[in-house]
Fold each of these.
Amino acid sequence: MSQYGAEQIKVLEDLEAVRMRPGMYIGGTGQDGLMHLIWEIVDNAIDEHLAGACTEIKVTVHEDNRITVSDNGRGIPTEIHPEAGINTVELVYTKLHAGGKFDTGSYKVSGGLHGVGASVVNALSEFLEVEVRRNGKRYYQRFERGQKACDLKVIGEASDTGTTVTFLPDRQIFGEIKYDFARLSHRLKELAYLNPGLSIHLDNRITGIQRHFQSEGGIAAYVKELNEGRKPLHDDIIYFRDENGASGFVLEVAMQFTDEYDENIYSFANVINTNEGGTHLMGFKTALTRVFNEYGREKKIIPQDAENLDGRDIREGLTAIVSVKLRNPQFEGQTKTKLGNPEVQERVSNIVREQLELYFNNNPGTARLLLEKALRAQEARLAAKKARQLVRRKGLLSSSTLPGKLADCAEKDPAKCELYIVEGDSAGGSAKQGRNREFQAILPLRGKVLNVEKAALNKLLDNKELNALITALGTGIREEFDIERLRYHKIILMCDADIDGAHIRTLLLTFLFRNLRQLIERGHVYIAKPPLYQVKKGRQVLYLYSDEELKALRSQDGKDGHFEVKRYKGLGEMNPQELWETTMNPEKRILKQVTISDALQAEELFRVLMGSEVGPRRDFILENSDMITNLDI
Ligand code: TSJ
């Protein structure tokens, strides 16, 4: 009894800690935090699938923002937990990190911010209800803001087994609740590819979109989809899987080379996207480089006197997925998305070497083609390097040929300089007048021109607008990219807050992602957030950046509501002074730093928007309906 009391106090303390500092547990209380709540719950169902006990997962977004996640697994054990003295369901929901306690040796998805435990979701939800179907019975328990609202009870009979969880994120913590539907369906689709055979349903009652994700083809099918719209250099997807019975280590690789220049390698550990890479990715890359060079030398495809191929030469145009499953993943890095387990590198490297050698021996035609492509890439890289050295030596790196549209700044130290890329000539004009010309440069890009030509990204290099951008940045692109020559350390995309603006932003991000990726990786790229509303209250002028702020203002000032609200339709409507005040003044402006995962998403959106299939495009537009409502139809 006294032990139970102490246990209860600990639970309340934990709850309090989570509610006091939600960011520590779920990374924030914005979109990211909301997404974490969903993944935390979904991951539990995925774990059940990885344990071989669940084939179907259903996610429902209700009109009132409740989320339901349901699986057909074994059902959370309802028995009294021997150590804790309470039923296991309650344990899972009230004890921090309770997950591992009754782990059965499956591949827990407990990486990074995921795996903080269902109790964290519970603590941050207005309410959370669990239904467990098990032992022929339906059990039910409810919690409110993390605290038990009733004991686990039997509410009926069950003919199947499974777990259903429904929760409503707490508005006290998250404020207005707005899910990122594009992200939600992207990740569920990814999970379906990473777990072949698993059936995942998404029923979004807010948008009215229902989707079913299921792939028998797994990551090979994923690579195929990623390469849609590109020209593959070989028809087949190179695929292999290796499972080690003793350690339970699983490696899966799917890859295909295209005639593009960029490399797209996605790596996963226990189905978590390891954005920052890690030992599995290192192992893959070193093996790839080694096999290409060894095979190329052996077959005399690489000339005797030629340098070894560099990894970058080989990976040009490669789309690949490297997925590992292991028992004790260590996640490191800034966003906990880098796999740290040291033993993994050699394991992966050995398997990839063996399998790729096998593939090359069985497909000598493809092997030769890929090696010749890599040799051409090497040639181009070496030529570019030589040209650059030549130019350097001659001291011809002056900015004499900067584009005419660029209004450059006075400051010469790149670390202090900012480049605003502005949609449209009229907004560009206001920005030029409103800026601080000491350190802010303006490059207006005509959105229409970009939009017309967006169908063929390769052709973008012939596009005048983008050429001006490349010249202004100073770094060159792809193989010639040289970060040392970057002329501005902040590159700020300033687009209208409507769907056209979103289009252009997507296009620009995709362009940067494919051609100047380091700019994003190193955190040089930002998105400016212009205000949506101007509010005049007598002499006072306020700028509001979201509908929530407007709503808050209206409810606050409801009574003396004597104000004029103006909705900005675009940047062009702001005069130079306003633009400076709201969007360019470093003291007041809101900038969002673009992460590589933003860019990845933009890349995918781009493919969806430009792709040949109409269905996904329509779904995307519906899933981003908050942008649509901003349109003046
Ligand atoms: F954690 C949770 F509550 F958030 C949650 C758990 C949410 C959802 C949607 C599903 C689940 C969940 C848990 N689905 N299936 C399970 N399975 C178990 O907890 C379980 C069942 C049986 C055994 C066993 O050893 O017999 C072990 C486990 C871990």
Note: The first strand starts at residue 56 and ends at 61.
Amino acid sequence: MSDTAAVTTASPFADRLLAMNESATIAMAKKSRELMAKGFDVINLSFGEPDFQTPQYIKDAAKQALDDGYTFYSPVPGYPDLRQAICDKFKRDNHLEYLPNQIVVSTGAKQSLANVIMSMVNPGDEVIVFSPYWVSYEEMVKLAEGTSVALVGTLENDYKVTAEQLEAAITERTKLIMYSSPCNPTGAVFSRQELGAIAAVLARHPQVYALADEIYEYINFVGEHVSLAQFPEVRDRVITVNGFSKGYAMTGWRLGYLAARQDIASACEKMQSQITSGTCSITQRAGLAALLGGRASADEMVEAYRRRRGLVLEIVRDIPGFKTPTPSGAFYIFPEVSAYFGRTAPDGSTINNSMDLAMYLLNDALVSAVSGEAFGAPECMRFSTAAADEKLVEAFRRVKASLAKL
Ligand code: PMP
Ligand code: GLU
């Protein structure tokens, strides 16, 4: 074989890419779109995205931004007035005082998380990820060559990791812990007491930082949203990530932010300056209008999510073998489905795991959901409840009928 042939057959891709998994949520959504394009009536409950349009007053602000000439690069960490409005939001909603230079606006909460992980995690550092976790956490830690340590909550405790579990998992190599509350995928919400206990553990380990993902803050059915940064003993070591995708139904606009100690914010700004720069100028102006409009539009959407949660739980509780905790926030249900493992499908194939079950439901019920595997919970499955009421009822009627054939 000639040298040229040897070069052309080698993989052109970097080890870091080969080690990485595609986002399972995005992969499943892609599969269902493909089936839909072929004419199948798929109900897509795999993607975690509000089905609502962005409120009109926010769209109007974007149109105005274009007319006002907001077509240039923005400062990397965001326009000063937007950063001030984010500080005002933290004060109003979370009783937290930040200065604008502690805020970094980004191209979605996903980028904010990546900024922090890429800026803070060294190869070999341990990152404790509360499990079940959102799919991208583990992959981002891998990208940074950190070691992710999944700490698994129990079904009996609504999958919430406890302070005792955390204390036992911290080692001298632990750099960061990360979690979402309200949680994607479980919908669990940490109480003040639970987060206070976690803060007390962190207070005893001054080398450990915390990445608190609060993107579902507004979608909360139990009432109080608690931020880890509210505990003074750890406040300086907590990086809070939030964004506009969920609360303001702005997924496509790509707008998120983080708040942190000033040196951490500067580090994230530096990281972002080499990768994307400031996010879209028009989006930022729309985001400013969103914040100035308060949370009334979010509260309306939350009422719909609450109603849908009720509708779905009523059907799902009737599905034999599903063990489904009641979500306290976000817009997912996350049943434990292992009762179906080992069963035989009508075509003779065996359902070995939750991936097989998700594929069976996609093909037989034309309902797409995501296997719990990518969330660190292979015995579970995630269904989004962010869809119209009648679609949800139809979807779970089909799921129930398909499962009855196994
Ligand atoms: N964190 C969690 C827990 C999420 O579910 C998502 C997905 N929307 C994100 C972060 C990223 O959100 P964004 O659209 O702002 O990038
Ligand atoms: N956060 C959503 C989800 O969990 C969007 C998909 C993604 O960004 O991975 O499905």
Note: The CA atoms of residues 51 and 387 lie 6 Å apart.
Amino acid sequence: MVFVEARNLPSHVGIIMDGNGRWAQLRGQERVEGHREGSKAVRRIVRAARRLGLRALTLYAFSEQNWARPEDEVDTLMVLLRDFLLSERDEILDHGIRLNAVGNLGRLPGLVRGVLDPLRNDSASHHEMTLTLALSYGGREEIAAVARELATECANGRMRPEDVTAESLRGRMPSLAVGDPDLVIRTGGERRISNFLLYGLAYAELHFTDALWPDFAEADLYEAIESYQRRERRFGLVGKGAVPVSPEAPTPPAPPSEATRLRLVG
Ligand code: FPP
């Protein structure tokens, strides 16, 4: 049984969607079939996130490094992206979702920009949930771009070097306009960050699952959020001066909660 507390939701969830290729190979299919099935998982999880009431969802859809993949795989991913944006346009607009994108968007082909840009525009005033696609994205590249911007402003006298602070960098990171990620999920069994939201990850809770992305279901999202909420509660106890629990000691029972509990999965 999975319970998700309505009042302690992570505000911003990031997902590293990994395992499409292996999902296909396990079935003797081409890797692109895994991406096709992965697109269905994207639709499913965006709906689940909206219904749950998350404020922001950031999906690592295409990294700056992914351009080095075989041309037909890159082409298929671009077509899938376009198809996703076309097929979800009404869903996004009808439900007050703001569609955003971060990354080196100038590298994206016209077939993607042609649907991405109008949808970003048309949904710009929405505020139910912000869905950000990280496209041609790299965390180090994002940090370097902001550093360049600040260096330029210092060089032309519009900013003083002493005003370059952790906060001034943070404020200029496009990926953190919706706030730092509270929870980052990675599917596909690997335990690494792969250049995703590097600057914002400072205090994020990390959740790794062996589920391959095309198999990632609503229940897996709820499970990740439940695990985040358990960790949050423990952190709160220590913060209030509770004696830290030794690693050998059994985990104390969670304090009684007055929160509304949403039973999401039976
Ligand atoms: C990683 O799996 C996944 C990607 C590089 C792309 C993610 C793309 C999608 C989920 C589909 C299209 C996106 C949208 C937003 C509609 P992998 O190929 O590295 O898997 P592997 O580790 O098993 O090889």
Note: The chain has one domain: 12-139+179-238.
